[in-house]
């Protein structure tokens, strides 16, 4: 879908983005208080530690923390003239999943699965009739004309009505086809459907008019409940068809969990540039986690260093940023202009997370600190950073309910001029002592040959530069000297 237009549509609906941000921060504060009260005493990394991480509810279909989400929005090459290639590029970025792909061809999806990827197919609000065309069960205006989204004018597509038996049949046919083809989960683009169409003058189809008349309501009154009923009912039917729960995600712009987005297992959507800072990224992933959901973001920027900071902060917060390749930039009369990042710009970060799977999967948020990032779970930060750009952020992640485990301290540089800095760790607070091992893990500088070998062997650890750090002890604190980051590092803290 068209991200920019979606933003405009939100404004048209009177959504206030500041209000949304405040709401999320409030949710986050609530989450923190729940975390503290619900923490068990044994949720500690080492003897005497005050660090607390809570177990997270498993979210169906959501990526593991070390997964690399890649969205070839369509299959490439699509034809003989297409120079893009899905599989070589996915491999170059070390993808583990293909997410949000518009393709339901069984032969191709079986090839995707054979190559070891999880596959997420996509449906949207304007699925074609099974016999082709866009005629059956469409949203109609009061004059009986088919409607489409304002940003799709001229594309020859028309939105389907959730109350129409015909469109329900169309939706089921498309989703069953994806299940039959081997899709592991399904992304729904534009899930507001009839709720969105109210602003464009719909829907006045016979199904909506009869449904409204039966309850003495207007067609506008029934649409929110109708959309919710649609997804609940379709979900039940598809689970029964598949014989297991079919995970669904939705395009919930900016991590919106209001109706109908709350009905989906997880969200996969654009993070707006204005909200891309460490405080808000962390708060959004944290608020999502408290709702028992998961969020995967896409990001629209051609600023490579900015995007790298967002990638690193997402992973450090327990979230994901889809590889910036095939990303929507702007709409055109025939489609969109898209951005294709290069492996030499981002693959070092994605290879780094694959190589650190053992330090990421199973780990949960235990503490954070940094400029304007205060952790209200604790009276004082366990990590303080001095020197450098003063814009390095720390994210401590531990395995809940396990003692004497390795602690993962993620560090992300947000300063535009990265400089060396010192990390100071509270020994008693973290339950560590000077004899623990402190290992600095950095993404190794990009080399195509090295990355090709790592992908061929599955040994991503070779993409990590590992250095043993020599701790200095001062006033019950461990002091570690860290070089300038570009922009990501993990310090592995482990009992010897
Ligand atoms: Zn209708």
UniProtKB/TrEMBL annotation:
This is Uncharacterized protein.
């Amino acid at each position: 879908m068209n991200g920019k237009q979606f933003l405009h549509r939100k404004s048209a609906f009177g959504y206030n983005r500041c209000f949304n941000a405040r709401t999320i921060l409030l949710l986050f504060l609530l989450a923190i208080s729940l975390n503290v009260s619900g923490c068990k005493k044994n949720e500690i990394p080492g003897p005497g530690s005050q660090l607390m991480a809570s177990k997270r509810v498993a979210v169906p279909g959501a990526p593991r923390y070390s997964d690399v989400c890649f969205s070839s929005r369509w299959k490439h090459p699509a034809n003989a003239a297409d120079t893009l290639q899905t599989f070589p590029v996915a491999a170059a970025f070390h993808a583990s999943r293909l997410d949000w792909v518009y393709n339901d061809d069984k032969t191709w999806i079986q090839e995707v699965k054979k190559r070891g990827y999880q596959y997420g197919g996509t449906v949207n609000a304007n699925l074609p009739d099974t016999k082709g065309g866009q005629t059956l069960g469409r949203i109609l205006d009061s004059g009986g004309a088919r409607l489409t989204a304002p940003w799709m004018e001229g594309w020859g597509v028309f939105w389907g009505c959730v109350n129409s038996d015909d469109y329900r049949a169309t939706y089921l046919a498309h989703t069953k086809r994806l299940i039959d083809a081997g899709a592991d989960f399904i992304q729904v683009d534009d899930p507001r459907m009839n709720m969105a169409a109210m602003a464009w003058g719909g829907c006045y189809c016979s199904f909506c008019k009869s449904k409204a008349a039966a309850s003495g309501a207007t067609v506008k009154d029934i649409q929110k409940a109708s959309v919710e009923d649609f997804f609940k009912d379709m979900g039940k039917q598809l689970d029964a068809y598949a014989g297991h729960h079919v995970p669904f995600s939705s395009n919930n712009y900016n991590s919106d969990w209001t109706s109908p987005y709350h009905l989906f297992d997880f969200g996969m959507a654009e993070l707006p540039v204005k909200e891309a800072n460490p405080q808000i990224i962390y708060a959004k992933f944290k608020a999502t986690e408290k709702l028992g959901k998961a969020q995967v973001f896409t990001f629209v920027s051609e600023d490579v260093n900015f995007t790298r900071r967002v990638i690193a902060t997402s992973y450090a917060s327990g979230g994901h940023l889809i590889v910036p390749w095939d990303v929507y930039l702007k709409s055109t009369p025939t489609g969109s202009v898209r951005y294709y990042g290069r492996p030499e710009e981002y693959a070092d970060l994605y290879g780094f997370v694959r190589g650190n799977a053992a330090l990421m999967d199973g780990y949960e948020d235990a503490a954070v600190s940094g400029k304007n990032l205060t952790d209200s779970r604790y009276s004082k930060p366990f990590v303080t950073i001095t020197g450098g750009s003063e814009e390095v952020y720390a994210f401590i992640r531990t395995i809940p309910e396990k003692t004497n485990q390795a602690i993962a301290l993620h560090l992300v540089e947000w300063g535009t001029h990265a400089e060396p800095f010192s990390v100071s760790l509270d020994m008693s607070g973290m339950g560590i002592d000077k004899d623990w091992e402190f290992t600095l893990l950095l993404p190794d500088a990009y080399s195509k040959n090295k990355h090709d070998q790592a992908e061929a062997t599955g040994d991503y650890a070779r993409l990590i530069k590992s250095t043993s750090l020599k701790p200095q002890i001062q006033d019950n604190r461990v002091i570690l000297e860290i070089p300038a980051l570009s922009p990501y590092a993990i310090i592995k803290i482990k009992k010897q």
